[in-house]
Amino acid sequence: MPLLAIETTCDETAAAIVTRGRDVLSSVVASQEALHAQWRGIVPEVASRAHVERIIPVIDEALSRAGVTRADLTAVAVAVRPGLVGSLLVGLSAGKAIAAALGIPIVGYDHIAAHLYACRLAHGERMRYPCVGLVASGGHTSLFRLRGPIDLERLGGTIDDAAGEAFDKAASVLGLGYPGGPEIERAAVGGNPRAYRLPRPLANDRERLDLSFSGLKTALRYLVRPPGAPADVPPPLGQKCADLAASFQQAVVDSILAKLSLALDRTGCQTLAIGGGVASNTLLRESVENLGRSRGVDVLIPPRSLCTDNAAMGAIGWERLERGEDDGLKLDVSPGTDRTAARRK
Description:
The protein has 345 residues and is an alpha/beta fold. Helices cover 41% and strands 18% of the residues.
């Protein structure tokens, strides 16, 4: 019983074919990194136009790799929140057209919940509820208590930049490429993570589960170009660049770990699930694993291919389909934020 899952929330055009048993028969992702590199960030209009060009070829490739035809599909699941409205509408339009033509159900799913559902795909029955979930990506850095696959309670999150966004901006300050997360990680190899004393805003605040990366980003900028310095100060090179990258990366990871530890204290949960593009970062993955071992908590992190935006995590659509739900052609997008998404069941 193959499900077609579609993901176009931001700048990745993705489609996957997933069975009712959550076996991923194919997963195709068309990246837009090269399109947005010149701006060092996502340009919504460029992203939505690229989705229009790529959505049908990506779906066709997913069907071909899975060895199924459109006529074999039993349902469609499409990401409808949160995200860029133009991008979301492209995926939804394609999904509706296929569902209407074939007379099959269509359900919308939450992109944030799907990032955590990737842990269910990767680890199966080890995904126990309730659990603490962290989604860290370019647009979101939030903590949740998961009562079930699609029942999320937001515990806290960033009050300014998301972790991935902070990495992008830090990479720009250091004269590195885009996207910033992988660039910072590569530059940090051989660097001393304690070379510079960078702040960990809110890390010691035990009253709330919020994070902040804006001040950290500003502190890095002042190390590279102090207030009053000429605008054309060249970016650091060699060991200094490596030390700055390593120090920044360590500060981001330390901030996240502090809030994960607090969330575990608050909830008493014995399972910790991590998702989102920043979960691809090696230091974060290793540090969270160490946190889990020290506390006797089961840590679930998907493989990197399921951390960055993909449609395989749209297997979460089966959670609604198995309840007999069908949104039909009335389904609409809800760009919103992870705050609004978490209130939806």
